[in-house]
Records
---
Amino acid sequence: MAGSESGWRPPYDESTLRTKHQSRRSQVHHELSRELLLKEGTENLLRAKIDSKARKKAEMELSFYNCKLQLLREELNELNSSVLVYQTVGCVYTSKPLNANESVTLVT
């Protein structure tokens, strides 16, 4: 039986979540690079001698790119801050130096 027919779902898989997370971070980086290039091109257009109609359109596009860049930066910051969750899961922490035969394990 397929998973969708029986309602069965595979167990929680941290590596799959980590892969999705890394994939989204990569997408956001790619989108940021693209938007920065578009913004740079629009700024170059504004430096050129263009008519007022084209200038207004370029200014509107520049405003859009700035908003889009801000949203992407915020998303990237959120993604980067959530990386700590994946980096600390299953790690061992010690609260004091231990002798060779002592062991204290705190798993988060």
---
Amino acid sequence: MPMRKGVISLKNSCLRNVSRKMDSLWCADYTRNFVDQEIRCLYVIGPFEHLTSDLITELIDTLLEMKRLKRNHLDLLFHDYLEKLDISTCRMVADNDEVARHIGLRCQKLKELNINLCKRMSKKVLCLLVEGLSNIVSLIMSNTNCSDRVLVVIAQTCNKIRHLNVQNTLVTDTGVLSLSTGESKCLGLQSLDVSRCKVTNTGVEAVLKSLPDLQWVTYEGICDVIGELLIRDGQASGQQMCRLKKLTAQGCKRDNIQAALMCCPHLTTVCLDNIDGCMEPLCGLERLTCLEIYDNRQNVFESSVAPVLEKIGTQLHTLVLHCDTNFTVIGLCCPNLISLCCYDSVSVMNDFQQKQLKSQNMLEKAPFSHLQILKFTRTHDDWSDSEVMPEGLVIVLSYCKQVKSLELKRVHGLTDDVFFQVFTVNKFTETESMLFDSCSITDVSVRLLLHQESALKSLLLLNCPDITVKNYNSYKKVIAMSNFNLKIEYW
């Protein structure tokens, strides 16, 4: 059975009590005398003025959990002590210009700010926001209206910034170049994400040459940038690029990918959409721990991926494959994997059943014994009665006894019989989160999980045709009566 709810700590009890009385007590006077009278205040001294930054963050999280957070609550919660703020989790009440202004005015000691997906904050107000963030270290502005002007203000103001994410914004070379000019105060920048922006190779080349501490750059064409620099400047550029720890290549020339891999020996993360010809330079990366492959060609795993895993699989902790996959090969070659994410096509699924690899050799190596995150998604959504469960996936599920998070999407072959087969070997006692999307399990398998001792805290059952609303209501009743610390969702 999942763990039962215990007695909450005194701190959590206080936070929940404060959350319940936010409107009736803590915010009542402010709401009645200011908000209702449409009086706008730049600064507010209220009941939470002397709470620590961590406590304010926990109170916001508690309000969100209890679905009680309102716009006027933030007026009293934003103050000068705040060091960390994540607005992306409360966009319904916080994604507007007024909140952005208040953050810039009141929270000038912020070190970490995340406004991902806050698309209702205007460009002008984003500039005012960053003007007040002179102490910021990490700033996430992905999927917002961030523009070149905002980056110019960041370059002029944020002299302590180390991590900047402007993914999928309106930023162009003009904004990126402002970070690398002589007047920029961002020379200590260590990571920069400009993927899916309007930035070109020219802008990325400038920051690579001008920012000496830059180690993590996320940009689709960075291999072409490095390749062009090596051709033009030779060994001098190679020495500059060797500090990079992440390489992302999408649509880059094969020669440039090879050159980039060879001149960056300290890479820990590599994302490629074409692995042809990259085996030798990849095998030379002694610090590589994360490998992502995006290649939808048939048989690419056998021809290109497997030989690389045979060479460097033991050092990998994270493996992401958007291609045909062979779990048994992965299990043999990558015994230290912590995270495995596979996105496969139906045309290759039956290739998993390679009996020669499911042998005593497989048992001796204890594959997937360190795996904590497993995600598998089929890239099609057509139901087929004749579809069977891939033998390789059964092997993974049977051996990953330490997995904390499990996600299976569109695995139509996952029936009760298959689940029982796996369950006899692996009880999933350490698993905290499970998601089954478009799978063929029924009420029987779910009840097996509910009656098994485990650490399960979250169970999502999505688009599973053999599980009904009546079943879902019965699960909620069991969870409530048994006082399980388990959140279950169904649709």
---
Amino acid sequence: MDTNQSQEQPAKVNNFNRQNSGKERGSCSTASEIDLDDDLEFDEFGTQLAVQNAFTDSTELEETKDGFQDERGLGDRAYTPDPYLDDDFEAELGMDSEVHEEDLPFHDIAKHRILEIAGDDSYGRKVIVVSACRLPPSKDIDQHRFLQYLKHTLDQYVENDYTIVYLHYGLNHLNKPTFAWLREAYREFDRKYKKNLKALYLVHPTRFIKVLWLLFKPIISAKFGKKLMYVNYLDELKAHLHVDQLYIPQRVREHDAVLLEKNKPPVRQPSVAKTYLDTQQFGVSLQFIKEHNNYEPVPRVVRECVTFLKEHGLETEGIFRRSANANTVKTVHKMYNEGQKVDFVQLEDIHIPAVMLKSFLRELPEPIVTFGLYSNIMKMHTLPKDAKIVETQRLLLQELPEDNYVVLKYIVEFLTWVAAKAEDNMMTPPNLAIVFGPNLVWSQHQASLTSLSQINSFTKLLIDHYEELFTK
């Protein structure tokens, strides 16, 4: 970016956080009905009666007129009031203490892994996966406690923009929640949980779930309704999410394969090897980028995003915790891959480079802190603090590939700059760790909320002890 140009347009840059670009768009495209086995359906007439009885006073449950003030449809940004950054999640996630799964709150419910956190989506928003097939029989679980567990888990993420993927397959007459529970849940999940929810993907919808949505529709905000998207096949998620990084139960994958075979037989085509442009930045290895860019050690997109954010974004409240206009993100993504010049000043949204930096990390074929280091990181929580520092330094200097080390060092150094301005931007090392941890480290296999806590703790250690750890 031309430095003179950035100096000529200070007013435009200073106004980034007060501007909301992008037009409101509808987000719900209903596909053809998919009927599942009888044991996964419910009596629609009974459903209707139950809903009518459960919600006899619909006005009691109506959203207030300003309940979704300045909210947008799927993929658009929404302004969030100042208090959204008041929380420090360090104590909540147990970053400074040894973490044992059995010591976590609600372990008796968390062990079923009904909720999983799966990094960021294509627009920089946290992804929460809910798997109905993992619900135990209703008689075996305290329904009120289950609701409190859901709130406890979501409370750690709802102050940021986030996305929910609900995997409906596996809900049946044994584990389905009661309508009394649904009524209580509707009341408990108030505006706090709805305002930053940017998309709700309902995967493998059945006739029951569509009827239920139609019955609830009159008492649900129209703006909230725009966030719902039916997804008949897992492949349809690829336009918005990193599907290969989602925690999807095997039985759901098998069910999806059956549906594809039954309703959407693949067309046989000769296999074609995937090719990349020489200028490609996203979805390719660090080695590929280096070899096609005059052996520059830091990828262009990382360098330009960090440089711009250092100049204009360090004092932005909530930097890295807001998403950006989906169409703009796609456009900039394409421009970088095609080698075009990107002028963040002209884009007038400070959150675009922040989202692009996270997206670059998440779209690497292998995390920048490689799969080979994952098990070592998971074992570090048993070590005292000084030993953690020694072990982390050993991993970085001896185990991490050189290309990865250089880029990781560049990014973590930048995060120390961001943390130094935490009084202005509210991004303390623990909060930065929550945002960046799942984008720096992830497992080849399914993880748990416990492992996520350990990843965040490791990331916080990198930021807090940058000078000690990155010594070459």
